[in-house]
Amino acid sequence: MSGKKIINLLKTFSRQERLLFEKWLKSPFFNENQLLLVLFEQLQAVIDETCELDKMSIWKALFDTTPFEDTTLRRTFSSLLNQAYQFLSIRQYQSQTIKQKIDLLPLLTAPELSTHHAGVLRNVEQNLYTDISDHADFQYHLYQLTKVIYKNKELAGNLNESCRHLERTDLHFDRYYFVQKLKHYCDALGYRNFISEEVDIKLLPGTMAYLEEQAFFDDLLIKAFYLVAKMLNHPEEESAFFDLKQLLFDKCSQLPKSELKTLFIHLYNYCIHKKINVGESSFFSELFDIYQFALSNKIIYNREGELVQQDYKNIITVGLHVKAFDWVENFIKEQTQDLPIEQRQNALTYNLAKVYFFRGEYQKVISQLQEVEYDDIVYALGSKLMLLKTYYELDEYLALDSLIDSFRIYLRRNKTISTQVKRQYLNILRFVKKMSMIDPYNTQALEKLYRQAEECKALAAKAWILDKIQLLGKRPTAHTNE
Description:
- Among the domains are: 4-95, no CATH class; 132-264, no CATH class.
- It contains 23 helices and no strands.
- It has helices at 4-10, 15-26, 35-47, 55-63, 70-94, 97-104, 114-128, 135-155, 159-191, 207-213, 220-233, 239-250, 257-275, 283-296, 309-321, 325-335, 344-359, 362-369, 377-393, 397-413, 419-437, 443-455, 462-472.
- The protein is flat.
């Protein structure tokens, strides 16, 4: 190993983790090779990027005047890497206090340690039920705990109690299994929206009926993922969607945070892919309701407490569609600060302009966007398109013609925009130009223009174009074969 792997790993350590790793290397219990401590100290400047990796200098610090051997140095790098892996593993294990104590119980089964066993067992039981931060681990820990108790009772010859704990062990194992199986199955169903390849994960025949019959629904997470599976398998039967939505809204505080985000993503995707995208626009209101709840309960935020840009955009799009303009404007002003810092300014400027456009406050759109040049291609194209539509709405034909010309030049010169995207935007420039010049009383010309736009496969803002052509005259009632 050349040293790049260990350097790459150590760069991810916080300053506190580096200090702890240094203590680890100083401890003979963990590390018997003190050369690794010297190597770690030599790498500090490389990790901080204040100097380049110099193998000869490192060799001299480690082995003094011994002739350089690349293989020996590589093995030393590799040994330090393994120490770092062990350090991270133990750090992770140290954070899992319940798991530590459950793992400790089998080591305390000797008769003379019975008081120790009872004390640790009591501590585990007290703490386990107050911490359901991860339900899957919760059920798995219960399974491990009851298995230890059942084995202990069996060894003590208490078969009646052993049997009762065996039943509990099997119950917790079933709950753990069904939660995991349903999660995997629901993820596979969800992937159908995004990939053409079928994910080969199936439930055993009769699983859904078995869950209904065996009263597993007192476990909220099993019930929730059961409803997800039912909802995604039979999207036309909307009762599962509404039952799941009600369950999550009513029992949000009782469900583990680590699972809530996944369950809400299933709700979002059902609304978008199974309903809205197939023309059921009433689900915009449902999706908006879900987004509002997820926001107020901090479910939609990532681990760093940030909003993901795609969720931020979706919330705005849905809010504007249901005409909640004041709410959306307030959301933009307050929640834009929850985006990653480098995305905030563009998002604030562009999306406020978007609200003004939907409200018909076109002068505000112009003042918001006119002086802004976006580095981000998506925002750049979006702002230019919004200005184009704004000038058209205001009948500002001189400004419109000027923007069409500059927008066309921008598209042709920009090498980072794909050919397909360029075609979509060049086509809208072409249609807007025709719309600004057409005789609104020429029904035949309007019919032809509408038909051309309708048949155009690569056209940005197609619905807006068709709507504006219709407003110029009557929509054609029948198409000719011309």
